[in-house]
Design a protein that fits this description.
By secondary structure, the protein is an alpha+beta fold. It contains ten helices and 19 strands. The longest helix is centred in the middle third of the chain and has 16 residues.
Length: 389
């Protein structure tokens, strides 16, 4: 008797829903234990599901673009001689008394062309009422890829949302419905931070780590969250849950695909170098699609550095529920302002930016929000003295 093994969506997969992105193997292919079988895409990360044992891919139950939840059966592996049985079943004509399970189209593509197209490409072609003959393929041997279809359709029709884009949209809409958003605005002088960075960037680089301004903001927030624990919290209807660890998420753009928020865990225990090192790894992994599920879990506070794209001010920035606040960082500019020189007021030019804190008004009031932002700015404007305190 043929022994079959189920390939399951992991019960600890990030989030409650995912989408089958692509199959690395096809029915009839032999696989080795722990060899990647299929990729799942969630709103936060792409996850490879490995084969649970040596065998042959006997049956695929969830095709590309299908939505799945933890513990769903994705496929079955034959641990014995199931390949011949599967091929025989595939070649046996269906019982004429049963309705055909083969989808019919008004303009079917040639069999050879259909075999060369992935399920996701066929779905996109059908959605956009196109055929593969309309498109110049960029894949191996001229094969049409999903990106080829999307590019071809972009000028004249709609582009389907990625799984990340759909999940982010759902998450943001839910946050705005649940939490009353209020934003407070401060201005920070980053002159001392920029001086410190210019002196130490080369040293950090020699150790394989980029020293970015975001690292300073993470460090300053970690200190302010320690001093203002109500901001490092989760709102419940009966209580405010304060978190012992400061786990700071940093919004990272993925181009047209959407946004992901990798998390720097226990940031309160990291030096500036430790923050910069971890931040560099997470950003590179996010943009390379290599984040692990644990890299996006457990955030207690989020930073959105929208200023890297030239934005001076963005408000309100949608809170990353179930957190209660999010910091927005605007573009750093050289601005004319009043300064103190040896106790005398003067006009000077300083490097400044706007900082916003958007809060869940169910959990926090202006008092806590302003105290937190004042602490962040005090650390930045007195760097490195505040870091060393």
């Amino acid at each position: 008797m043929t022994q079959l093994a189920d390939v399951l969506v992991p019960p600890n997969a990030e989030g409650t829903r995912a989408t089958v992105l692509r199959w690395c193997k096809q029915v009839g292919d032999t696989v080795a234990k722990d060899e990647p079988l299929v990729e799942l895409e969630t709103d936060k990360v792409t996850v490879e599901i490995p084969a649970p044992a040596d065998g042959t891919l006997f049956e695929i139950l969830k095709q590309a673009n299908a939505e799945v939840i933890p513990d769903d059966v994705l496929a079955r592996l034959s641990l014995g001689g199931a390949t011949a049985q599967r091929q025989q079943a595939a070649s046996t004509p269906p019982d004429e008394t049963e309705p055909s399970t083969v989808a019919e189209t008004s303009q079917p593509e040639p069999a050879v062309a259909r075999q060369a197209l992935s399920p996701s490409v066929r779905r996109l072609l059908k959605e956009h009422s196109m055929t593969a003959a309309d498109i110049e393929g960029s894949g191996r041997d001229g094969r049409v890829t999903a990106q080829d279809v999307i590019r071809h359709a972009a000028s004249a029709t709609r582009i389907p949302h990625s799984a990340i884009r759909r999940r982010v949209a759902e998450h943001m809409a839910r946050s705005m419905l649940e939490a009353p958003h209020v934003t407070t605005l401060f201005e920070a002088d980053l002159t001392r931070v920029l001086t410190h960075r210019s002196r130490h960037a080369a040293d950090f680089e020699s150790q394989g780590t980029r020293l970015t301004l975001t690292a300073y903001f993470v460090s300053a927030c970690a200190r302010a969250l320690r001093d203002n624990p109500e901001v490092n919290a989760t709102f419940h209807t009966d209580a405010l849950e304060l978190h012992a660890d400061v786990n700071i998420g940093v919004g990272t753009a993925l181009g047209n695909k959407g946004l992901i928020v990798p998390v720097i865990h226990r940031a309160q225990h990291l030096s500036l170098f430790g923050v910069a090192q971890r931040l560099g790894y997470l950003v590179d992994a996010a943009r390379g699609g290599k984040l692990a599920p644990e890299d996006v879990r457990g955030g207690t506070f989020t930073i959105s550095n929208h200023g890297v794209g030239g934005s001076l001010l963005a408000a309100p920035i949608v809170i990353n529920q179930p957190q209660v606040a999010i910091l927005g960082v605007g573009k750093v500019e050289r601005r004319v302002c009043a300064i103190q020189v040896d106790g005398t007021e003067a006009i000077g030019v300083r490097s400044r930016c706007y900082l916003t804190l958007t809060i869940d008004h169910r959990a926090l009031d202006a008092f806590q929000a302003n105290a937190f932002l004042s602490g962040v700015i005090a650390t930045l404007e007195n760097w490195p003295a505040a870091e060393e305190a």
